[in-house]
Amino acid sequence: PDGIDFNHIVSGALDQTIDARANGAKKLGKPLLLDFAAEMNGDEAWSGNDPKLYVSAYQHIHDRFVAAGASNVIWAWCPNVTDVDGRNRETMDYYPGDDYVDWTGVDGYNWGAGNGFSWQSFHDVFAEIYPLLAAKNKPILIGEMASDENGGDKAQWIDALVPTLRDQFPMIKAVVWFDVDKERHWEINSSPGSLAAYVNFAADPYMNP
What's the pLDDT tens digit per position in 41-76? Predict the structure, then answer.
């Protein structure tokens, strides 16, 4: 986005601000997931989709937090489910390194049908990137996910979440639903069937170990 230049992070020009955030996190005194510049490989285009610059900025912020003693921060790294070209040829180029990441992650959506999109199951949304993340042998977070209503059965999409997580994506240990009416009807209550399915999903013992 306009106005974001990671060179200012790497140069140390923003260290005072970073240190203030680190001290605030430390004072919280509770575990805190921090996901810096999510979807850095996608259309967010942080500092021009520059993997080396992103990694340098991420590592710089991480090191400032460590120096401040913010040991309660859990570092999550969440790329978009595909690169800007719709594939995953560069995604792992943005990976900051095993010593800098506690949870790998991903943001992905079923955009429904129409306007150049086709309906995808939950499995299909994450099938290509999952093995790339799983190879790091760290817990995986879905930092954002949701499904549209158009082009398929959203309730069935939600019903498939637990079986797919359990049987095909076992290293995914946490998910966050993007409950916002934005580009699509992402809300959990976009229909009565969707809401009922989500209630069952949230109550499933697999999601509440």
Answer: 988 888 888 999 999 999 999 999 999 999 999 999
**pTM higher than 0.90 for the full model?**
yes
Rounded Cα distance between 89 and 91, Å, is 6
* CB atoms inside a 10 Å sphere around CB 163: 13
Instruction: Using alpha carbons, list the distances in angstroms from residue 110 to 32, 33, 40, 116, 161.
Output: 28, 25, 19, 12, 13
Residue for token digits 């949230």?
202
Q: In what order do the strands lie in the sheet with 73-77?
A: 32-35, 73-77, 103-110, 140-147, 172-177
Cβ burial, residue 176 (10 Å; 0-12/13-18/19+): middle
DSSP state of 119: -
Q: What is the CA radius of gyration of the chain?
A: 18
Cβ burial of 5 (10 Å; 0-12, 13-18, 19+) is: middle
pLDDT at 36 over 80: yes
User: pLDDT tens across 75-107, in order?
Assistant: 999 999 999 887 888 999 999 999 999 999 999
